[in-house]
Amino acid sequence: MAEKIDPRLRPFRSVLYIPGCKPRALDKARSLAVDAIIFDLEDAVSADEKDNARETLKEALAQGGYDPRVKIVRINGLDTDWGQADAEAVMQMDADVVLLPKVSSADDIDALAAITGDKPIWAMMETPRGMLNAAEIAAHPLLTGMVMGTNDLAKELQVRYRPDRMPLMTGLGLCLLAAKAEGVVIIDGVYNAFKDEEGLAAECEQGRDMGFDGKTLIHPAQIEIANKAFAPTPEEIELARRQIEAFEKVQAEGQGVAVVDGRIVENLHVETAREILAKAAMIESVLGF
Ligand SMILES: CC(C)(COP(=O)(O)OP(=O)(O)OC[C@H]1O[C@@H](n2cnc3c(N)ncnc32)[C@H](O)[C@@H]1OP(=O)(O)O)[C@@H](O)C(=O)NCCC(=O)NCCSC(=O)C[C@H](O)C(=O)O
Ligand SMILES: [Mg+2]
């Protein structure tokens, strides 16, 4: 069983993909205000650069400078020419998590774990079969996070792009249910039009409303928007403080329900309020951005 990162406490607002073959981008990431980085050996790296990318990434991680960002390495699938070597190489790298693409069942996680031992595994959720098997994938003892691969999912489902993402909703919902049932991290897919700030902000808001912990990103220009959308707002922090205060007051009087702004506040609301404050404090004290 891999130690779970509590997604209610550890922020994953912004999770940036960096192609493992690009030294300049790998270097730049050391100063970027992201909560986590996906060092990519899969789709962002062309076939003739795969071996080189593995070495470049190994060196960059050995040099360090990425803490306190969570370091995730996305390998190629084990059914490709590079997957086995990637998985073996990750064991020599200073990485927190190994991310497996196109996971379709818990057997895929078992196959990776046969190489990577007890290293925590995240799953790219991007195939129709993966959506149908989301519950067993999330329940795997080594699985600590899921990442939506909305490009591959859209391709497999043969959907048309729509700003409201209606054709993807069943898949997003199934994965969210599975992740929440098991208490694992779940990150929304990328927004491809990286110069469209308004479109990205709208999609981040939608993802936050749905319960995603954060957004995967492809360009540094997207970071600030995701960090803002997935952090507790000043209004949420202020309300959380008032809810806790009001509840503690009625509790001291032997009652179990407070009223704040015309709405009831019970124990479960106070738990949410405490999580909001803990996440805000974590962003402030550990990350500072
Ligand atoms: C999209 C890009 C190809 C654009 O690159 P570029 O033209 O170099 O952008 P800029 O000139 O604007 O870059 C400015 C500086 O920022 C650095 N940079 C760019 N991108 C990144 C990055 N991702 N991480 C870190 N730093 C980055 C440049 O080096 C410039 O730095 P400097 O010169 O020092 O100022 C490019 O952004 C890119 O390659 N992005 C990543 C694409 C990627 O990772 N794709 C795969 C993941 S998406 C996916 O597969 C999802 C899933 O599987 C699914 O199915 O949906
Ligand atoms: Mg993909």
Give a written overview of the molecule.
This protein has 289 residues and is of the alpha/beta class. The chain has two domains: 217 residues, Alpha-Beta Barrel (TIM Barrel), CATH 3.20.20.60; 54 residues. The strands form two sheets. An eight-stranded parallel beta barrel has the order 1-2-3-4-5-6-7-8, surrounded by four helices. The mean pLDDT is 96.
For the sheet with most strands, the description reads: 8 strands, parallel, barrel
Q: What would CATH call the homologous superfamily of the largest domain?
A: Phosphoenolpyruvate-binding domains
Helix content range: 40-55%
Overall structural domain count? 2
Number of strands: 10
Low-confidence stretches: none
Question: What overall form do the CA principal axes indicate?
Answer: globular
Q: Approximately how much beta-strand content do the residues carry?
A: 15-25%
SSE order: EHEHEHEHEHHEHHEHEHHEEH
Report the top-level CATH class of the largest domain.
Alpha Beta
Number of helices: 12
Q: What is CATH's topology name of the largest domain?
A: TIM Barrel
* Rg, Cα atoms, Å: 20 Å
Pfam families: HpcH_HpaI
Protein name: (3S)-malyl-CoA thioesterase
Cofactor: Mg(2+)
Organism: Jhaorihella thermophila
